[in-house]
Specification:
The complex is a heterodimer. By secondary structure, chain A is α/β, with parallel strands linked by helices. Chain A has two domains: 2-198, Rossmann fold (3-Layer(aba) Sandwich); 215-370. Chain A contains 14 helices and 16 strands. Chain A has a nine-stranded mixed beta sheet with strand order 10-9-8-11-13-15-16-14-12, sandwiched between helices. In chain A, strands 3-2-1-4-5 form a five-stranded parallel beta sheet, sandwiched between helices. A two-stranded antiparallel ribbon of chain A has the order 6-7. In chain A, strand 9 and strand 10 form a beta hairpin. In chain A, helix 5 packs across helix 6, helix 9 (215-229) crosses helix 10 (242-250) and helix 11 runs parallel beside helix 12. Residues 205-213 of chain A have low confidence and may be disordered. In chain B, 37% of the residues lie in helices and 10% in strands. Chain B has a seven-stranded mixed beta sheet with strand order 1-7-6-5-4-2-3, sandwiched between helices. In chain B, a hairpin with a 4-residue loop joins strand 8 and strand 9. In chain B, helix 4 (105-111) runs antiparallel to helix 11. Classes of the chains: A alpha/beta, B alpha/beta. Strand 16 of chain A pairs parallel with strand 3 (205-209) of chain B, so a sheet runs across the interface.
Chain lengths: 375, 521
């Protein structure tokens, strides 16, 4: 019998309804409650579970007590196996992490979690890529690519995956958004890590969709193309992400998945560098930037790769930016443009325009880069 | 005419025969035909026929064909035909991009007459003047419709025609000493996928122009793509969304500006016949599908004809031979100085050429224009009803209102509301004897479905189809499990897509099936 794990972050999304842009931290939660916020994560879970009723007797549902999954499961007439225990009424990030870890030990086939980016981060901290997971969006910030479009779709996707009708699994980005800055109207993100999610065309929010040829092959094609064109004259600044790092794998180089590395003559010059180190390395030298947009909204600069700062971009020059992206990532962006938000308005404007994006071996796409979100 | 309240869902049920594969029906020693012994006199005169063959050409083992009697062969294929939903059985407007139209039976009668079936391609041309005349005149008709100077009928289908076009572009630049320098072909993401695939096979680098939010390609995107490396530009217009690029003349001008050639994939020409001509849009070459647009049946991957037309300066590059007329006699001309050679044996699939010729002759110039007008009218009628009556359906790229002969729709809202996908809807439509189809690769439209009503269907037909679609969508909200478990009235239930994505499970031949079967079990 297949095992399905369910973890609900009961407070997810409560801050959003009352305009707090998130519910991270105890103070914020108090504030949210004071402003009259009501929990809705459980309702979101139920919407998804209803899609799974057909499998009720064929799947073992494993969940955490009460608000973290038990209540929702029972009210949808599942008979869940309830594990773990809660210390009190209030749940914290630690509960989410502990629950995820216990599910890992039990070897669930799929772990459904209800929450937002913060919840996704907790899950990632606990289990990394050891389980296939899927997020049911209930948070205020749902920028990560690990979430289904909505709960109904999450339930349907889970059903197809558990029935074996979908087998393809990809790494999807977990983004870390600084909630403090977000509240002040600034979006500052970094790429926090990757979770494994099942995929079917159009089911996950702004994330990758898939075709018979896997994402992996596509990334290898891109790496082969980059290596074919690579010149010893240049220093290559390799941005974060699983697409760009296949180049490093092909060269048998050590690399940082979430950081910025530099290579020259196909050798590693610097790993996980910050802005200052990048500038020092390329000063007075010819350099190119290899960068891939971050899932969903399609940010090229300014999300997850702030080390490649306006200064670095100016030093390298617009013509030396090489954009790489798998076809599916490019095609499933929520808009039909890529976005730049480097922190310098003038530079953003200069960077906008049309680019040749490397999408495969001997293959390019002409794609627009925009400096603002268009309607 | 269908009146309101008239509509009743059809109580349909397809036959189910659980019919084995023909190889499994084979019984050792059973025969459909007993080949007569060679008469003694003949054998004395010409020998036994086999001993004159060179040793290495004689097969050691007999071919492993099924051994089966005639009556069982007939039964087998009739049963299979009852398990399929052909174009002549249903109101076939749901197979968008394929231009499903009525294929007049009289044209089949002509194509099946012994005058056609007994022709041999190596006959003396004096004895096939009629066939050559038909080829020559069909060429003239297509020239009228496109403005091109010459056509070849050799390619056996649309993608084959695209490959022929790319080969001509290649040879053209090679002859000018630019073959190596010009190594890029530009196309659009929403053109037919073969527009990108064929150049890749030929060794070109492929640049795809992505659509903007209106479903159109920006001129600036093309400007970014062109360079002294551009060999050519190939585009489908209207694309499979049904959207026509109204700035196409600017596009071809920009490509010509850098020395590239422009090719027109006119597989979607049904709404434009007699309305616009490829040459007037600035194209140097292009193709029509004589199957689909010109009413020859599809034949599921052939036999078909992708008729490639070219402007004056490219006539010499066409595959040989082409049919010529010297005022007295039709003949085959093998003397084209830069011909890319042959792309298929002989001259093209003649029965397909004949059907297209006959179809055009029966319509005349005004009739052909009428085809386009009615196809566009039907399409816009269906779109209007879907948008106003099927609330959970939308059109892709709604910012652009114009649609020519087909529309790519989306059931994204339906899926978000109910979890029902376009594939679920499609399987449920089959329960009522209707077909509906999703989309070509790439799937950039969520939950896509594509409808192309063509000129063959009456308003009554269209209404019946739409009423069924509406009922199925209502069911999606009321009893979604009916759709999830569909079809209920068809012999083939769900096809598990993961098998299609796993080469280890593909069995194109019986031999491959036998080899791979063990691994699956």
């Amino acid at each position: 019998m297949k095992k399905l794990g369910l973890i609900i972050n009961p407070i997810a999304g409560m801050g959003g309804r009352v305009g707090l842009k998130g519910t991270d931290g105890e103070e914020t939660l108090k504030m949210a409650l004071k402003l009259g916020a009501k929990p809705w994560a459980e309702d979101r879970a139920k919407e998804a579970l209803k899609q799974l009723l057909l499998l009720k007797d064929r799947v073992e549902l494993i969940t955490y007590p009460k608000k973290m999954g038990e209540n929702a499961s029972l009210s949808c007439s599942f008979t869940p196996k309830v594990i773990g225990e809660l210390k009190g009424e209030k749940t914290t990030a630690e509960d989410t992490k502990r629950a995820a870890d216990e599910m890992r030990v039990l070897g669930v086939d799929l772990l459904l979690f209800v929450g937002g980016d913060g919840t996704a981060r907790d899950i990632y901290d606990a289990i990394d890529r050891s389980l296939v997971v899927l997020g049911i969006p209930a948070g205020v910030k749902v920028f990560s690519a690990v979430f289904a479009v909505n709960p109904v779709v999450a339930g349907e996707l889970a059903r197809l995956f558990l029935m074996g009708e979908i087998r393809e699994v990809v790494d999807a980005e977990v983004l870390d958004i600084d909630e403090e800055l977000f509240r002040r109207g600034k979006l500052s993100t970094r790429l926090y890590g990757y979770l494994k999610i099942p995929v079917k065309r159009g089911y996950t929010s702004g994330s990758k969709s898939t075709t018979p040829m896997s994402e992996r092959y596509n990334k290898e094609e891109i790496a082969a193309e980059i290596l074919d064109e690579m010149s010893d004259e240049y220093y290559y600044i390799i941005g974060p992400g699983t697409t760009t790092k296949v180049i490093m794998e092909f060269l048998n180089l050590d690399y940082s998945l979430l950081g910025v590395d530099i290579i020259h003559k196909k050798k590693l010059v610097g790993k996980d560098l910050n802005e200052k180190e990048i500038l020092e390395t390329i000063r007075g030298r010819k350099a190119k930037i290899i960068v891939t947009p971050i899932g969903g909204q399609g940010y090229l600069f300014g999300r997850g790769n702030q080390q490649i700062s306006p200064k670095v971009i100016r030093e390298v020059g617009k013509d030396n930016i090489i954009i790489v992206s798998t076809r599916n990532k490019l095609r499933s962006l929520s808009r039909r443009t890529l976005l730049v938000d480097t922190g310098s308005e003038i530079l953003d404007k200069e960077l906008s325009g049309y680019y040749r994006v490397v999408t495969g071996y001997r293959e390019r796409a002409i794609f627009k880069v925009s400096n603002r979100v268009e309607d | 005419m269908m009146r309101k309240g008239d509509f009743k869902l059809r109580n349909f049920h397809e036959a189910r025969w659980s019919e084995p594969i023909i190889f499994e029906l084979s019984r050792k020693g059973e025969r459909g035909i007993i080949v007569p012994e060679v008469e003694k006199e003949i054998e004395e005169l010409v020998g036994d026929g086999v001993s004159v063959l060179p040793e290495h050409m004689i097969r050691r083992d007999p071919p492993r064909l099924p051994e089966i009697s005639q009556v069982r062969v007939l039964r087998h294929y009739l049963r299979l035909s009852q398990e399929t939903l052909g174009a002549t059985l249903n109101i076939d407007i749901g197979q968008g991009t394929c231009t499903m139209k009525y294929n007049p039976i009289i044209n089949d009668l002509l194509a099946n007459s012994p005058k056609v079936t007994e022709l041999h391609p190596l006959q003396d041309v004096d004895t096939i003047q009629g066939a050559l005349e038909i080829m020559y005149k069909l060429d003239l008709f297509l020239r009228e419709l496109s403005g091109f100077s010459r056509f070849t009928f050799q390619p056996g289908g649309g993608s084959h025609a695209i490959f022929t076009i790319i080969s001509i572009i290649h040879k053209y630049h090679e002859l000018r000493g630019e073959g190596e320098k010009r190594d890029e072909i530009i196309t659009t993401l929403l053109s037919h996928p073969s527009n990108a695939a064929a150049p890749a096979v030929k060794g070109y680098r492929v640049i795809s122009l992505y659509p903007n939010e209106s479903g159109l390609v920006d001129v600036e995107a093309l400007e970014k793509a062109v360079s002294e490396r551009t060999a050519g530009f190939i585009v489908t217009n209207p694309e499979d969304t049904g959207i026509f690029n109204p700035r196409i003349k600017e596009f071809t001008k920009i490509v010509h500006g850098v020395g590239g050639l422009c090719a027109y994939d006119q597989a979607n020409a049904n709404g434009l016949l007699g309305i616009i001509r490829a040459v007037d849009c600035g194209f140097d070459l292009g193709f029509f599908n004589l199957h689909k647009t010109f009413s020859s049946p599809h034949g599921c991957g052939g036999p078909a004809v992708g008729a490639v037309g070219v402007t004056d300066r490219l006539v010499d590059f066409l595959p040989i031979p082409i049919v010529e007329y010297n005022g007295e006699k039709y003949y085959l001309n093998y003397d084209l100085s830069h011909s890319i050679g042959k792309v298929r044996e002989f001259y093209g699939v003649f029965p397909v050429i004949l059907r297209a010729y006959s179809w055009i002759m029966s319509l005349g110039a005004e009739g052909i224009r009428e085809v386009a007008r009615v196809a566009v009218l039907n399409n816009n009628y269906v779109m209007k009803r879907i948008l106003s009556e099927v609330k959970c359906a939308s059109i892709s790229f709604p910012k652009t209102k114009q649609r020519i002969e087909q529309v790519r729709y989306s059931f994204e809202k339906l899926r978000e509301d109910t979890g029902i996908t376009s594939e679920d809807v499609i399987r449920r439509m089959a329960d009522f004897g209707f077909h509906l189809w999703t989309s070509h690769h790439p799937w950039i439209i969520p939950e896509p479905f594509t409808i192309e009503p063509t000129e063959s269907y009456s308003k009554d037909d269209l209404d019946k189809y739409l009423e069924t679609l509406k009922r199925v969508v209502e069911e999606a909200y009321e009893t979604p499990e009916k759709l999830k478990n569909a079809p209920h009235n068809c012999p083939i239930h769900k096809i598990r897509p993961e098998f299609l994505e796993d080469p280890e499970r593909w069995a194109i031949t019986w031999r491959a099936y036998l080899k791979k079967r063990e691994k699956w079990e």
